[in-house]
Amino acid sequence: QVQLVESGGGLVQAGGSLRLSCAASGLTLSTYRMGWFRRAPGKEREFVGSIRWIGGITVYAESMKGRFTISRDNAKNTVYLQMNSLKPEDTAVYYCAARKDSFQNYDYWGQGTQVTVSS
User: Fold this and answer.
1) What is the pLDDT, as a whole number, of residue 80?
2) Consecutive 10-residue runs of the chain (119 residues): their mean pLDDT?
3) Residue 3, beta-bridge partner list
4) Reduced to 3 states, what is the DSSP secondary structure of residue 89?
5) Torsion angle, alpha carbons of 29, 68, 19, 39, to 10
């Protein structure tokens, strides 16, 4: 059974930082790309970035570059989203997802973790 479990969300002041974690199980991670998405209130889901498990190659949405960093820990089967210089507009539910590296669609999703940035 595939499970993606996010953690690390919370309330932070503008300018602060948070690190989200996504613990994965039930996957052969070496064949997957892990993605982070977010959904702000009243808005559509937005791609944040992704990381290819093998090699650690990352891709980011243009608006996230420079403030957000994705990394992974092979030993812990965990992917991280480090968010710095947070802004109120970063307030959203953040989701971790997984897709086969050769596919386009994300097949597995976590339950999400709330990030709230106060001004």
Assistant:
1) 98
2) 96 98 93 96 96 94 94 95 97 97 92 97
3) 25
4) helix
5) -80
Strand partners, 81: 20, 70
CB 47 within 8 A of CB 37: yes
CA dihedral (105, 8, 26, 71) in degrees, to 10, reads 70
The beta strand positions in the chain, using DSSP E, are 3-7, 10-13, 18-25, 32-39, 46-52, 58-60, 68-73, 78-83, 92-100, 108-109, 113-118
| Residue from 49, 67, 46, 66 nearest 58 by CA | 49
**CB 28 within 8 Å of CB 107:** no
Q: What is the dihedral of CA 78, 84, 87, 92, to 10 degrees?
A: 0
| CA–CA gap between residue 19 and residue 84 (Å, rounded) | 9
Query: What pLDDT score was predicted for residue 85?
Result: 96
Q: Which amino acid is at 104?
A: Q
Q: What count of other Cβ atoms lies within 10 Å of the Cβ of residue 94?
A: 24
